[in-house]
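Quick one, T. Sequence first:
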Amino acid sequence: MKKLKDFFYHVNDVLLALFIIVIAGGIIFWRVDKIMEYPQQVVEEQAKASSTSSKADQPNKKADTNTASKNAHEPNSSQDANSDVSSTSASGNNDNSEQIWKDGALTKDVTVTISSGSAEDAIKSLIAAGLFSSFAEFEETCTKVGRSVDSIKATTFTFTTGLTKDQIATTVTD
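Structure tokens:
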């Protein structure tokens, strides 16, 4: 009788564990679409926050074909999960009301941190900083200078006054 009782207790424990696993799996399977949408929602919220803070920095749509020497610096190569964008004028003060493009060249120093992840997310950092107006513009510039959009580096860049969009695209895709 004791062996029969022990058998039922063990089977009951195993069945309970299987039941819990099946229920958890069912809930995950049922909500997997919402789970997979969450990272995209976070990216969209960050892009909205970045775009509202840089609305005054609308870039000039002209692309300069000048291929002067590269003036960009890479002060550190942090593989940061967050994008950080700051525009700094020559005097060191943040002045987002000033237009950052004139005659196809930067009018002030711009520092951008490109986070690791997809190329699209990285390019959003450049757009938020006002360096490019859209993904299509960045893609067109990369094609023009013979670079792949997917080879964008995750690091912090400081783009100095006088750089063109071609030079910026070449620098971030080295």
